[in-house]
Design brief:
The complex is a heterodimer of chains A (99) and B (235). Chain A is mostly helical and 99 residues long. Chain A has one domain. Chain A contains four helices and no strands. In chain A, α3 runs antiparallel to α4. By secondary structure, chain B is mainly α. Chain B folds into two domains: 158 residues, no CATH class; 47 residues, no CATH class. In chain B, α1 packs antiparallel against α2. Helices cover 74% and strands 0% of the residues of chain B. The chains are: A mainly alpha (99), B mainly alpha (235).
């Protein structure tokens, strides 16, 4: 229990610091093109690494996960919003698992 | 007060969008065996999606605090830029405490919406604007945690894909617009799959795999396709 609570505290601190420090302390602009570019790409890199291959094991069976993944990619490509894409993938997985 | 209410209203669509995702977070945490209440506490104190999911999987693997800290810092590195970008747009009269309060509510979604807002962002507006998403996010998790046992397994299984669906909804349109981003996304995704499927890498923890896949992809992008525009270039 202590381990869990300490973990949650550590998580909260290291989520808060990157949000808080620049807004509160930093008034200058980052000039290094490398750091700028790195920070620019990090969100996409981390989301991709989080999604693949974990998405294939997210629903309990690999077939519905893969189909759900393609449905999500399709609707995302069509420019649908986050909630729409997430719901479409969920509904698709639900329907496949009925059979 | 008027500004505060205006902010709250502006935050409602974000709060609604958060609900199903944080709901599935609550379901996931409870079904993974963590004690009741943990998920809601995490959502209330962290207010972030990918960081929370990653954090919980690290907790379940009994990772070290350093590993948790480093992974979270890396996943949340994007907030540095968002926070930096917002610092140019907020009311410059805001004092340090006010800045510290509103920075708690910076997320991918609140950042995007706030950036598109006309004019200067006042403290009262921002306070309202982060309040509704915080409520939506925390309440969603609380419902997920408490209602899990009433939900049939089929629905729980289906909800497992929700967060990844949202991730895809972020990376796919960005990749369609920019071939540089597409290459970074593919690079990181492939490295991550190699780490997952090639048995040699089983010695690495899942947190370390995530950190390495991210850094390899982002460094590749930064070296191969440097961004020349100014600091606020975040989508």
């Amino acid at each position: 229990m202590t381990y869990y609570l300490t973990c949650i505290l550590v998580m909260a601190i290291f989520t808060y610091l990157p949000r808080m420090l620049p807004l509160t302390c930093f008034r200058k602009e980052i000039t290094s093109p490398f750091i700028q570019s790195l920070l620019y790409y990090v969100p996409y890199a981390v989301l991709s690494a989080l999604t693949f291959p974990s998405i294939f094991y997210s629903t309990g069976d690999i077939f519905s996960s893969i189909v759900g993944c393609f449905i999500a990619i399709y609707f995302a490509y069509k420019g649908k919003g986050l909630v729409f894409v997430a719901c479409a993938a969920m509904i698709c997985v639900y329907i496949i698992q009925l059979f | 007060m008027e500004e505060f209410i205006k902010g709250c209203k502006k935050g409602i669509p974000i709060a609604l969008g958060y609900f199903p995702v944080s709901f599935s977070f609550g379901v996931m945490v409870v079904s993974s065996g963590l004690p009741l209440g943990m998920a809601t506490l995490i959502s209330l104190t962290n207010l972030t999606s990918s960081g929370q999911f990653a954090g919980v999987s690290l907790m379940l693997a009994y990772s070290s605090y350093v590993e948790v800290a480093f992974t979270l810092l890396l996943i949340n590195a994007r907030y540095f830029l968002m926070s930096l970008s917002l610092s140019q747009k907020i009311d410059q009269k805001m004092n340090t405490l006010q800045r510290m309060i509103i920075s708690f509510g910076i997320t991918d979604e609140t950042f995007s919406v706030a950036s598109l807002q006309e004019g200067i962002l006042t403290f009262r507006f921002m306070l309202g604007f982060i309040t509704t998403p915080i409520i939506g996010w925390t309440l969603g998790t609380l419902c997920g945690e408490t209602l899990t046992h009433f939900l049939p397994t089929s629905i729980q299984n289906a909800m497992g894909i929700a967060l990844y669906g949202m991730f895809i909804a972020i990376i796919v349109p960005a990749s369609a617009k920019s071939s540089k981003i597409l290459k970074v996304v593919l690079f990181s995704g492939i490295v991550s799959m190699i780490f997952f499927y090639v048995p040699v890498f089983d010695v690495l923890s899942s947190g370390l795999k995530l950190i390495l896949s991210t850094l390899i992809g982002a460094i590749y992008g930064a070296m191969r396709y440097p961004i020349v525009s100014k600091g606020c270039d975040v989508s």
